[in-house]
Amino acid sequence: MSRVVYLNALQALDAALRHRSMRGAADELGITAAAVGQRIRALEEFTGTRLLDRGNAGVVPTAASAGVAQALRRAFAELDQVAMRLNLDRDTQVRIACDADFLALWLRPRLAAFEMQFPAIRLAFLSPADPAPPDLTLRAGGAGALLMPDWMLPLGSSENLPRMGRGPSPLPLEGMPLLHVEPVAAARAELGWPEWLARHPLRRDGAQRGFRFGCWSDALNLATAHIGFALVPLALARGALERGDIHPMFPETPLLPARNPWMLQEHPRPRPRPHVGHFLDWLRGAVAVYLASLPPPGADGELAMETGGRSR
Predict the structure, then answer these.
(1) 11-41 pLDDT, tens per residue?
(2) Which ranges does the record mark as transmembrane (predicted)?
């Protein structure tokens, strides 16, 4: 067995011993669990010694591997220190699992500023089917730390807004076409038209009727195209509002808080990765600038809008 091969096999064994799991080792090393198992089996065949057993809670070290586990951990920690001193880790890629709407409508328009500040750092946005482990996850609700809150904004096009209240009913939304969104990746069902209309009774019935979509981008695009009225997170609609593509339906009505705020989950690696920290610092700074452009929410969490139709 060559030196490179046995180093890879020992690395897989070290990770499996620390995580007590093939899957945990695979996530750390950026390979599949099957590949971890293959490396460890090759080491077992080479040494003629069984190194892992499978238990109810994951993999279990044998007497042979338990006796070398601490030595393996120290050896790879020292190798990591050598690599850092020699600047061998030149991987400047940050792998991000990101909500597609958040990426397209809020994050991507701001990335040019990041690229100007950190031209050597590469951002890789992973698809749901990508096997590579992410460094960061950005999503609506779920695990992690709060990145930023959001508020639900009723929107209509310049062509549709004058139609409200023109029917036989005095209620402005009676009979109006509603666009519903049920984000498939959200941690829980987002506040929609039925809940909004229960709070603001501007329609007698039919709050559930209308077109349904799995993402905010589709609803926002169809509202812009005069198909109906959408209830969309402010952060995702802000760009279209500023361009004048879409308009608030009720500028005087405070915005209700979203049920799923934007969350950030970090996935630490054993070896420090300063470029991930650079992106995190930049992202938090961009969020702070965005939130500073909004008025502070009230004690009830609601957000006021300017009479002119844009958040203060």
Answers:
(1) 999 999 999 999 888 888 878 888 899 999 9
(2) none
Q: Which residue has the tokens 């959200």?
A: 186
Question: Which residues, including other chains, have CB under 8 Å from residue 222's CB and lie 6 or more apart?
Answer: 179, 211, 213, 228, 230
- Contact of 296 with 239, CB cutoff 8 Å: no
- Residues spanned by CATH 3.40.190.290 within the chain? 90-312
Report the 10 Å Cβ neighbour count for 171. 16
Domain covering 90-312 assigned CATH 3.20.20.70 in the classification: no
Residue spans of the chain under pLDDT 70: 1-5, 83-91, 167-169, 184-188, 272, 306-312
Distance CA 133, CA 36 (A): 14
Which pLDDT tens digit goes with each residue over 43-88? 999 989 999 998 777 889 999 989 989 999 898 888 877 765 655 4
Averaged pLDDT of the chain? 87
| Interatomic CA distance for residues 36 and 40, integer angstroms | 6
H-run or E-run covering 79: helix 69-85
CATH 3.40.50.1980 fits 3-85, yes or no: no
- Which of 145, 147, 151, 91 minimizes the C-alpha distance to 121? 91
In angstroms, the CA 198 to CA 202 distance is 9
